[in-house]
From TrEMBL, chain A:
One of its GO terms (molecular function) is ATP binding. Signal peptide: none annotated. Residues 4-241 form the ABC transporter domain. PANTHER family: MALTODEXTRIN IMPORT ATP-BINDING PROTEIN MSMX (PTHR43875), TREHALOSE IMPORT ATP-BINDING PROTEIN SUGC (PTHR43875:SF15). Keywords: ATP-binding, Cell membrane, Membrane, Nucleotide-binding, Translocase, Transport. The keyword Ion transport does not apply. It comes from the Bacteria. InterPro entries: AAA+_ATPase, ABC_transporter-like_ATP-bd, ABC_transporter-like_CS, ABC_transpr_MalK/UgpC-like, Mo/tungstate-bd_C_term_dom, P-loop_NTPase, Transp-assoc_OB_typ2. The keyword Ligase does not apply. This is ABC transporter ATP-binding protein.
TrEMBL record, chain B:
Gene3D superfamilies: MetI-like. This is ABC transporter permease. The chain crosses the membrane at residues 32-54, 101-122, 134-155, 178-206, 227-252, 284-303, 334-357, 406-430, 442-463, 469-488, 529-552, 572-593. Belongs to the binding-protein-dependent transport system permease family. PANTHER family: INNER MEMBRANE ABC TRANSPORTER PERMEASE PROTEIN YDCV. It comes from Microbispora siamensis.
Length: 365, 608
């Protein structure tokens, strides 16, 4: 299975505005890569450029050794010759064709003989569990079924590159959960390289083998999901990935209160860096007596929000509000004064890039 | 860990490389080539004749050299002066302009209220027999617009113009001039003719509004009236503005009705003024008038561009169907049905029966003078030009065959071209090409057919370059007819393609379908409904077309309409009415058959 390589890819519309700026990205062979970012960050444009539906204004796109776009060399392969699969956000099923004909269409274009075409379409529909609706029309299906038909239509031609443009965003939560598992299974079974666009960080973390975070047309970080979570490259990634988001306290020129406390601690442990901001993930903020040499402060409990498997606590620490997430029952009640501590904090420089982190043992990468 | 830090502006490849890349892309995407072909064709068929008219307005015409004191063919402002500033300019221009504005405004309001109301009734309510109403209320559009004016005269004509008076006057009820002639009857008869057009356009848009959009507003607490004002009407704006503009354009160019109902009372509009100027052979003045109308048209086009700019890329519904839920009229169901029946009666039954009865009575609608001579008599005493019933002799049959052949071919060309224009506009690979096509394909609408025909004649009458002289050929007739009806089909093509969006085609592209396969298997089949509407509407309209063909037909290419108007000119009222009824019958039958054969209904239009 091929890797997808984007080199120096840029896309601008009309004037000077860039939807995608100078993108270098490699989707490894057989990876499940999520393009993650807020709306308008250029992730869908990137996906459509890989598919060939949009053309870059500069750069090269290749799958394996096959160059699909190269503005510099004047090479272009049209979408219909790229042999990829794409699922659109609104599925784009053809309303005048039955489910079977929708799925068979790609095979027909590849001149697959009728009996084989039939068998492969049925197999693809069986794989996504809509083979019962084979002779119906798209308008007679539910959203979830349409979604599955769109998947089957893509899978029937057995493409080695699958592109998915927020395919789960129109589904209800239960179906979405089910489809996530389904997509993961399809990835494992087919071994295809998958590029998946989403703005939902949870979706990215749960499904992807690699996550690429984009913002304003620029790549912020490419990493495995847990690496991205543990070692965000900059403030944007730190705040975008993780829920509830990381609390980041700006230090400022004359730090007082919580900022001062955090800075003093950070400087005492990592004297070589001078952070402009310090971040703590809610689940790294603990309550109770601190085990040894960690950062700790007194905090007033403002609210306790149980959520079954976890407890979210709103704290006031030196005039700043913080959230803590605990996975053990929280005994404190609102108004109680407790000690909060952490042994993991992220330090950010003035330009927003992550300088370092301290995890109780010392600096980590 | 991959941290990415990048220069803000990427290095741009050299121009020649970018160009090479662009060319490679274009080679695989025929949209741009198709767009260019359409630009050239429309440029030649639409823009070139208009340039010819414009140049005629500023060059001294044969016969005016003595008055103007210039040589024939010289550049001149003589015609401008004559039309705008001379002693006769009030008669030539200002009064007709005012009258045109009054008629256009009145007709649009009339058609919008009637057509919009009926559209809502048949698409969004549970009125009894809505399917039947939806079909029945489109029938007025199948009748030639001057049918209504002939029927009006049969009922309301007074003694002013001389000759046989109408039904009311004959019964001793005096019909004042304002009721018999002029603005009011023209507005009413044109409004009755054009409201189905509004009904079709608005009905289609109403049917396609996603019920969820309406429900969201209801759930947020908006009362019904607010929902209509803030959600439905804004979403309908493209359809409404299209409807208004198409009707205004049509009224500007309409000729038969103001000819029949206006001229006896000296009520002139721009189109009849233009016709008279052409008939008087004052080509220069006619060209100035035509130019003025073109300019008015262009202003409207620009206004439309502004108004619908935000809506152009608007995809209300993807490939999915919208929900079809109806408001419950409760106790008003049957009164609403009665209202629909009244509209049907006034716009179809009354005019048709008036005309029918007039063809079987020697005195209008007086059944004691019943006769079938006008239909079947082998000899009609007194009628020298057409001395037998309309079904005798070969004239009617030859004209009917010509009409079907010529109009049918023109409609098919027109519909396919319209859909292709829509395709190129919505694909949006070349914004400037799209802009040109959108505007130019609409332009013929704002030029009176008669001026357009004259312009086409001056352009095509002689051989130019590789194109031979086309005057008197059916080819020219087909071409001009297709071009003048292009606004219908290109509008509906653009609307249909906008509704569809690009994704169904992109999905086919991803599935490996080359361009022709995508067109043949995806775009055209999905747009079957739009295509049928795009054929049927121009067909019905072309079958009744008068102002264009009256200039272009020769003895070999007589059509039903020219036959009928010839009979009107002879004063054979009953025979003319009979031929008009035949036209109405043929166009109705054709519509019905088309609906049956393609299993799509004209009433549900783009719905396919």
């Amino acid at each position: 299975m091929p890797a997808i390589t984007l080199t120096g890819v840029a896309k601008s519309y009309g004037g000077g505005e860039h939807a995608v700026k100078n993108l270098d990205l490699t989707v490894p062979d057989g990876a499940f890569m999520c393009l993650l970012g807020p709306s308008g960050c250029g992730k869908t444009t990137t996906l459509r450029m890989i598919a060939g539906l949009e053309q870059p204004t500069a750069g090269t796109i290749a799958v394996g050794d096959r160059v699909l776009d190269s503005v510099e060399r004047g090479l272009y392969v049209p979408p219909e010759k790229r042999g990829m699969g794409l699922v659109f956000q609104n599925y784009a099923l053809w309303p005048h064709l039955s489910v079977r004909d929708n799925v068979e269409f790609g095979l027909r274009m590849r001149k697959v003989p009728a009996p084989e075409r039939r068998a492969r379409a049925e197999a693809a529909l069986k794989m996504v569990h809509v083979d019962a609706a084979m002779d119906r029309y798209p308008s007679q299906l539910s959203g979830g079924q349409q979604q599955r038909v769109a998947l089957a239509r893509m899978l029937a031609v057995n493409p080695s590159v699958l592109l998915l443009d927020e395919p789960l965003s129109n589904l209800d939560a239960r179906l979405r959960l089910e489809m996530r598992a389904e997509l993961k299974r399809i990835h494992e079974e087919s071994g295809a390289t998958i590029v998946f666009v989403t703005h939902d960080q949870l979706e990215a973390l749960t499904m992807a083998t690699d996550v690429a975070v984009m913002n304003e047309g620029e790549l912020q970080q490419v990493a495995a999901p847990m690496d991205m979570y543990d070692r965000p490259a900059n403030r944007f990634v730190a705040e975008f990935v993780g829920s509830p988001p990381m609390v980041i306290v700006d230090v400022g020129p004359s730090p007082a209160g919580l900022a001062g406390s955090l800075l003093r601690f950070a400087e005492s442990r990592l004297p070589e860096c001078s952070p402009a901001a310090v971040g703590i993930r809610p689940e790294a903020l603990r309550l109770g007596p601190p085990p040894g040499a960690t950062w700790c402060e007194e905090a007033v409990v403002e609210a306790v929000l149980p959520a079954g498997s976890s407890w979210t606590v709103r704290l006031r620490v030196l005039d700043t509000e913080l959230y803590a997430v605990s996975y053990t029952p929280v005994e404190a009640a609102p108004g109680d004064v407790v000690t909060c501590w952490t042994e993991r904090m992220h330090l950010f420089g003035a330009d927003g890039a992550r300088l370092s982190a301290w995890d109780g043992m010392g600096a980590v990468a | 860990m991959a941290v990415v830090t990048k220069a803000e502006t990427p290095p741009r490849p050299p121009r020649s490389r970018r160009l090479l890349y662009r060319l490679r892309v274009l080679r695989h995407d025929p949209t741009a080539a198709l767009g260019l072909i359409l630009v050239v064709l429309l440029g030649y068929l639409v823009v070139a004749p208009l340039v010819a008219v414009l140049s005629d307005a500023f060059r001294l015409q044969y016969g005016d050299d003595v008055h103007a004191g210039q040589a024939v063919g010289e550049w001149t402002g003589y015609y401008l002066w004559r039309v705008f500033r001379s002693q006769i300019s009030g008669l030539l221009f200002w009064q007709p302009l005012l009258n045109t504005l009054v008629v256009a405004l009145g007709t649009v309001l009339f058609a919008l209220v009637l057509g919009g109301g009926m559209a809502w009734l048949v698409t969004r309510t549970n009125v009894p027999g809505r399917k039947w109403l939806a079909g029945a209320l489109v029938i007025p559009y199948m009748l030639p617009s001057w049918t209504f004016s002939l029927a009006w005269l049969t009922l309301f004509k007074n003694e002013r113009a001389g000759g046989q008076v109408g039904f009311l006057q004959a019964r001793g009820v005096h019909t004042p001039d304002w009721l018999a002639y002029g603005a009011l009857p023209i507005i009413v008869t044109l409004g009755l003719h054009y409201y189905p057009f509004v009904l079709l356009l608005v009905g289609n848009a109403l049917r396609r509004i996603d019920a969820q959009l309406v429900d969201s507003a209801r759930i947020l607490g908006a009362p019904q009236r607010t929902v209509v004002r803030r959600i439905v009407i804004p979403l309908m704006l493209p359809a409404l503005s299209s409807a208004v503009l198409l009707v205004v354009g049509r009224v500007l160019g309409t000729f038969g009705t103001p000819y029949v109902l206006g001229l006896p009372a000296d009520f002139r509009v721009l189109s009849t003024g233009l016709f008279q100027s052409i008939r008087d052979r004052s080509t220069g003045v006619a060209s100035v008038l035509a130019t003025v109308i073109v300019v008015v048209g262009v202003v409207i086009v620009l206004a439309d561009t502004r108004m619908t700019r935000e809506h152009r890329r608007f995809v209300t519904v993807g490939g999915k169907g919208s929900m079809d839920r109806l408001s419950d009229l409760r106790r008003l169901r049957w009164p609403a049905f009665a209202l629909g029946l009244v509209v049907f009666g006034v716009s179809v039954l009354v005019p048709v029966f008036t005309l029918l009865l007039s063809t079987v009575t020697r005195t209008p609608l007086d059944l004691s003078t019943f006769t079938l001579d006008y239909w079947f008599a082998e000899r009609l005493p007194g009628a020298v030009g057409f001395p037998h019933g309309v079904f005798r002799g070969s004239e009617l049959w030859a004209a009917a065959w010509n009409s079907l052949r010529i109009v049918g071919l023109a409609s098919v060309i027109c519909a396919v071209a319209g859909l292709l224009v829509g395709y190129v506009v919505v694909r949006g690979t070349a914004p400037r090409v799209a802009f040109f096509l959108r505007q130019v394909s609409f332009l013929p609408y704002l030029v009176p057919g008669i001026a357009f025909a004259a312009a086409s004649l001056s352009l095509f009458a002689v051989a130019r370059g590789p194109i031979p002289a086309l005057y008197g050929t059916t080819f020219l007739l087909i071409l001009v007819m297709a071009v003048t009806h292009l606004p219908y089909s290109s509008r509906s093509g653009i609307a249909a393609m906008t509704q569809l969006g690009r994704e169904p085609e992109e999905a086919a592209q991803i599935a490996g379908a080359p361009w022709f396969q995508r067109m043949g298997r995806i775009i055209f089949p999905i747009q079957k409904g739009a295509l049928v509407t795009g054929i049927v509407l121009p067909f019905i309209s072309g079958l009744k077309e008068l102002s264009i063909v009256v200039m272009l037909t020769t003895t070999g290419t007589e059509l039903l309409t020219t036959l009928s108007i010839g009979l009107v000119d002879y004063g054979y009222t009953q025979l003319a009415n009979a031929v008009v009824l035949v036209i109405a019958l043929v166009s109705f039958t054709m519509t019905y058959l088309t609906q049956r054969l393609t299993k799509s209904s004209l009433a549900s239009g783009l719905g396919g």
